[in-house]
Amino acid sequence: MSSAALRLSETAAALEPAAAAPQPVDLKLVPAPPSADQALDAVQRELDALKAELDQLRRRDDSLHHYMRRLDEELKLAGRVQQDFLPKQLPKVGPVRFHTLFRPAGHVSGDLYDVMRLDESHVGFYMADAVGHGMPAALLTMFLKQALVTKEIDAAAYRLLAPAQTMAKLNDALVTQNLSQATFATALYGHLNTRTLELTFAKGGHPSPILLTGDGELRALDSDGPLLGIFPGEEFAQTTVQLSPGDRLFIYSDGVELVFSDEPSPDSDRWRQELHDRRHLPTNEIVREFNEHLDRVVANTNRKRDDLTVIAMEIAGA
Predict the structure, then answer these.
(1) Has residue 49 been placed in a domain?
(2) E strands, 178-227, in order
(3) Bridge partner residues of 128 (DSSP)
(4) What CATH number should be reported for the domain holding residue 131?
(5) Which of 6, 153, 187, 213 could form a disulfide bond with 217, CB atoms 3.0-4.6 angstroms apart?
């Protein structure tokens, strides 16, 4: 090694800190291991703390079950109240008969319907389907039912409103409420002259009713109209159809299209095919088979359910 390298090595060694000399250990400062009694006391304290926490969780669980039972009972009561707003007896006027199917997805429904005698020669029918489910949707449909105006009455006489007028008034009544949540609904209202069998209806965002004629032809009856509750002053188109003995009209909510679908989304073609395949059956049998099909779907699948309502109107005499 050169003298310069040697001097550099010596300088670097001088700059390094000197290694600390080992210090003697004072054995008095080393903690003694816990005795068996102390270890048992520590374990017992941990067990007591866990037991107290478990007791607290059990009390919370009991309280939660109590409130859930109360909520379930209140929803059942609300469902019974909602059922009381459905027609107790469907009108039978001349050759006209009605059959209905009403199946909420839960205790209460976002669907609601009515069939009412308007005067000596007219029967009205109505269906609403609030967007959403559960109690908020049910409350909205209850409001719509009470806001439905089908005639104007003064001291001297009355006048039946055209279905398009009824729908326009219903939409304005909902918009006027200025609800805090974005709350919309579909609806359909119409009436039938039981003497002439002339059917007139209007709808807003609702599925088109299906006419199954006496000779087995199936066709959808369309009429344009927006969802209810978005804009005031909306106009609704109106459709008039001449019915004949043997004809049957099916008014329904979109839950029907969902229950006859193999996919999570509604299938209107499948539902219409199922209806057409049963054209040879009496109307009450068609409704009964739909109800039984729904029972099987509910029992055998975990698929999402929707509220489901059907009004079937038939003209006897074919």
Answers:
(1) no
(2) 185-193, 198-204, 210-212, 218-220
(3) 112, 187
(4) 3.60.40.10
(5) 213
Q: Quote the CA–CA distance of 269 and 30 in Å, as a whole number.
A: 84
| 199 within a domain of the structure (yes/no) | yes
Domain stops at, among 64, 85, 106: 85
Expressed as residue numbers, the domain containing 60 is: 56-85
Whether residue 153 is found in the same domain as residue 70: no
In a domain, 48, yes or no: no
Q: Which two tokens stand for residue 252?
A: 């329904």
Residue 14 belongs to some domain of the structure? no
Give the residue carrying structure tokens 């050169």.
2
